Amino acid sequence: MRLNQGITAEERESLKLFADWVLKIENGKVSPPVEDLSSYEEDDIVILNDFCDTALENNVVNMINWTYPNFTENFKCPKYLSERAILTPTNHTISHLNSAIVDTILGEVHTYYSVDKAEDFGGTASDLDFAFPPEYLHSFNIPGLPPHELKLKVGVVVMLMRNLNQTLGLCN
Hints:
Blueprint: H1 9-26, H2 60-67, H3 71-74, H4 78-82, H5 91-103, E1 110-113, H6 125-131, H7 134-138, E2 149-152
Antiparallel strand pairs: 1-2
């Protein structure tokens, strides 16, 4: 995990505390407070107030605006984007965030669909269509591959997670 180095000694100390706390979470060393374990589940953790902005309502829009201030003016700037990230545990969560972020950009939405077709099936062509209908194949969300329906706008950054064709420049 890369963190900003901080300019002042106070910023560097704050970043070090945050990095240490993240490592404790990763190593399973952060536990719920001892006072009231009955309201916590096994994987719950308490986020320290130092790492929260309690003045803001806890919602997706505020998180996006905090992480990407002045996004609509800067979304085409590689340096601006490379200094910011929202980490999520699942593809479903990041899909929701990506949709919310793309919606803030002015312009026409272009929708791209995958072509889902099963191959190497031992039966006939009609059996194949019956066994693997397109709706079933569209429901898969495979890590490293885009979803069946991908909505983009001109200027939106797309990161390839897999090298598709290096000779055409389609590589991460």
